[in-house]
Known about the structure:
Elements: H1 2-12, E1 22-23, E2 28-31, E3 45-48, E4 57-62, E5 65-69, E6 75-80, E7 94-97, E8 106-110, E9 116-120, E10 126-130, E11 138-142, E12 151-155, E13 161-165, E14 171-175, E15 187-189, E16 198-200, E17 224-230, E18 239-244, E19 251-255, E20 260-265, E21 276-279, E22 289-292, E23 316-318, E24 324-327, E25 343-349, E26 358-363, E27 368-373, E28 380-394, E29 403-408, E30 412-416, H2 434-441
Amino acid sequence: MMKFMAMLLLVASGAAAAATPLEMQPAREFPLAQPLSAETPLGGFFVHDLDSDGRMDFVVSSEGHVGAYSNSGEKMWVWEGDIQLFDFAHHPSVIAGNLNGGDDDEVAFLLKDDSILVLSAATGEPRRRLEDLAKPVAIGIANLRGLGDQDIVLQYDLTHLRAIQGEDGQTIWETDQYKAIEHSPFRQADLDGDGLDEFAGAALIDHDGTLMHDWVLDGRHEWMDSMVIADVVPGGPLEIVLAEQRGANSHTDVVNSERIVWRTLNPWDWEDPDKLVAGDFDPDRPGLEIFNRSSGGDGVVPRGEEEPFRNEQGPWVLDANGDLITKYYLNDNKPERWTGHGIEEIFRIDWDGGPKDYLAAKERHEVGAAAIIDAISGEFLVIFPVEAVRLYVADIEGDSREEVIVLDKSGAVKIFTNAEPNPYPPKPSLWEQSWYRRQKQNWNYYSP
């Protein structure tokens, strides 16, 4: 890990030569007790304290299965049946929370008959089924009535949401004023600081099902390809960052419940932002920075049609005001072993406990390695030699840092931790933040 710290100093000093990335082995791993297909993109996973012991456990969904595994990796239970998985890649399609206001948490998911099955989170024992829901395509948990995580929200299409009570399935409200983005489920968090959840997209829906604002984004919301909830501009309501996918007219849009904060045109003349990550990638600048991955093939970035330039990515980073900080070719920084197609499933990560955030990502277009990358410079700092089917980032050790968690092609969960003592003062737990809790459960490939 001293090598990792030395690389950080090298990057910070502006050195031109890239250091050789540190290669790390997992701190621990455990096998799954359910099938995991590297070829099938459906299903995913997240962490949640299923048995109320204060430690994060694992929920894994795959074709025909939902499994629960303890923090130490022991199988808690595996359910087998006709789960309905979201049609686009890597969405867990499962929720967990105190859905009936009782003494313990529950897990719930859609079935192919369009009902919701609710199980005990700790044991997998069936509790109840919620029916008469029409044909929802996605599911999420929310706090809409001030009762905690006791409400379920269903998405039917790009504009239609329905909120129901977790205890009995009764409708709370229904709206067709939402504007979802392409290929992703809705996203929810406490956007305005009132203690209740609202719904993010190209239009924002309040906890009572009403539209939150008067502004209207230009263009069709179906052309949005990624979104993230973050406190980009410090103070006031949380921002929603959206990636337009409209050729030369592709912008990065930042909005909140009060206004369109800014819209910035892509810096390559014809390249959409594609996938977004918001984080404190440059602590010397106010607010958060926004990493724009670039589509890598839909625009003008690739320098050729042959490998390694085919599908080449040219990321750029914007500051909290929407001004360009940097843009670069990812292939100019990647290790030789890394695909020329770039990165996907990109998470912001607090790896060392310090003020600076990094990126965690896997190889694009293949089951491959994962890495920690400096968003500003594009330097690869750490390589995880895995065959990652899914990648996930969360704080599961409670030490103010986050871990990299991989569902590996071998059928194992591999956990990578920063084993060095944290040299920085402890931070408040990220799990206390609504935006963190919600996005760590309701995520997919397009919007990790």
